[in-house]
Amino acid sequence: MGRFVHIPPSDPSDQFQNNYDLPWWKVSFDFSPYSLFLTHQQDHKLHDPKLWIGMLSNKTRRIRIVNMLTKDEHTLEVCSEDTLDQIKDKYTAYNWHAGSYVWKRLNAGEMQVMDMSKTLEENGVEDEGEELEGLGLDPADFVPGLALYFKDDLSLA
Question: What is the pTM of this model?
Answer without folding.
Answer: 0.63
